[in-house]
Amino acid sequence: MIIMMANIYQQNKKVDDEEKILSEGFESYPGDSNLSLRYSDFYVRKGNHSIALRILEDTKNNSLIQIPEFNYKLSLCYFHLKSYKEALKYSIEALKTLKEPIEVTILLGRIYLKFQNTDSAIESFQCAIESNKSKYYKDSAKANLFLGISMLVAKKYFMGCFYINKASEINELEINEFILRKGFLNPDMMK
To answer: Is the pLDDT of residue 144 over 80?
Structure first.
């Protein structure tokens, strides 16, 4: 019931009400892993990964986790907090339990890039693309973009440009905004 109400508040853009009901629910049911996952998602959307991580860690310590996405969410929080060793650990655990691990595989590739292990990053992104054939355009675009970036880092310039271009064909507007936001290209180069 709490999660359903939080989803309704989210759809109606009632952020304060969503936060309040999730907070009260978490206080009342601290071991509920579904509720904890939903509450942490609230803070991930707000960009506050440290609070999201605290919620997940509290739940991990207080209950048996039965949700496959739990390790992925832990990995994502650790990644954004730049704790890459922990992010790697939980990504590998998440790969063991998720049925369609496209997001985890992309995150794993990004972690390998942070460790400057371009071969493993390239392998992860290629795996994500292969397993994602015609399912999720957004994930496919993201995997192609990061594969392209990995190829550029590995000094495979032609292939890097090929995959970045492929990502932009899938979802041009979102990829161009991402590239500009992350500072990969100068805005004048996009014209």
So the answer is: yes
Each residue's pLDDT tens digit, 167-184: 877 666 566 666 555 555
Backbone CA torsion sign across 150, 152, 158, 161: positive
Distance separating alpha carbons of residues 51 and 53, to the nearest angstrom: 5
Which residue do the tokens 């390239």 mark?
Answer: 122
Positive or negative: CA dihedral 62, 48, 129, 116 = negative
**Residue where a domain terminates, one of 60, 90, 120:** 90
- The residue range of the domain holding 191 is 100-191
> Would you say 72 and 98 are in contact if contact means Cβ atoms under 8 Å apart?
yes
CATH number for the domain harbouring residue 11: 1.25.40.10
pTM score, whole prediction? 0.80
